[in-house]
Amino acid sequence: MNEPRTDPVAHNRQAWDREVEKANPWTRPVTPEVVAKARAGEWSIVLMGDAPVDPTWFPPDLADCDVLCLASGGGQQGPVLAAAGARVTVFDNSPGQLAQDEMVAVRDGLEIKTVLGDARDLRAFPDASFDLVVHPVSNLFIPELAPVWRECCRVLRPGGTLLSGFVNPDVYLFDAEAMEGRELVVRHRLPYSDVTHLEPGERERLWGADSPLEYSHTLAEQIGGQTAVGFAITGFAEAPHQSEITAGWLPGYFATKAVKLS
């Protein structure tokens, strides 16, 4: 099929603003109680599914740490890290998602900077601006990953850490309609894209024309792409999809800890 002329940045910006209006779980801010616990030193965040990040993946002290929460709007990771003592910038493609972080900052007296943009272009930040980049599952909404990893490497200081969560590309093998009927039917050749792999009108029938566009990415793009720009992978984890038929057969998510070598 020929790829439609679709601007994924503009489409997904509007789509995620609508997801905020619909209270998608990934748009619901943390509560004041979560923020209070983080201020007291009791905190965790997720990169994938419901699995908390291994605490050893973080710097030992966030008090003097500049953190970029990349494609991480929604008032979830950013406020927790800010309450734990970090200087936090949240960068996201959706004004609605950023507004959730801004709301929590005002509500709970946190200092959080928000920046709107495409994760493939971080020119808003000088080289070596951050000690830690937190990039939870979101690059499935980005058609190409190489620029994301290059920019992450550029804005991190030497020895800085990139924490990333992403979807297992193998889940995109299966026919979505069959999965709704609790069947796994192999249909799609990978890498998958909503704009190239579905019949005309199929995405609209399944999820609505205004739903976010999704793209699978190979593990070579996800993991090899990080090492290609100067990261060393020092941690790896996986987690199941919640309430998904695939959960009994294969991991739904992966996460990596990567350190900038120089």
Describe the fold and architecture.
The model has no long low-confidence stretch (mean pLDDT 95). This protein has one domain (8-169, 219-260): Rossmann fold. The chain is 30% helix and 21% strand. α2 (32-39) runs parallel beside α3 (77-83). It contains nine helices and nine strands. The chain is α/β, with parallel strands linked by helices and 262 residues long. Strands 5-4-3-6-7-9-8 form a seven-stranded mixed β-sheet, sandwiched between helices. It has a two-stranded antiparallel sheet with strand order 1-2.
What is shown here, in short?
The chain is of the alpha/beta class. The chain has helices at residues 8-21, 32-39, 77-83, 95-108, 146-155, 176-180, 194-197, 202-207, 219-228, and strands at 46-48, 51-52, 66-70, 87-92, 112-116, 130-135, 156-167, 231-239, 253-260.
**Rg:** 18 Å
CATH superfamily: Vaccinia Virus protein VP39
Helix content: 25-40%
Low-pLDDT stretches: none
CATH third-tier fold name: Rossmann fold
What keyword list fits this structure?
Rossmann fold; 9 strands; alpha/beta; 9 helices; 262 residues; seven-stranded mixed beta sheet; globular; single chain
Topology of helices and strands:
Layout: H1 8-21, H2 32-39, E1 46-48, E2 51-52, E3 66-70, H3 77-83, E4 87-92, H4 95-108, E5 112-116, E6 130-135, H5 146-155, E7 156-167, H6 176-180, H7 194-197, H8 202-207, H9 219-228, E8 231-239, E9 253-260
Parallel strand pairs: 3-4, 3-6, 4-5, 6-7
Antiparallel strand pairs: 1-2, 7-9, 8-9
Helix pairs in contact: 2-3
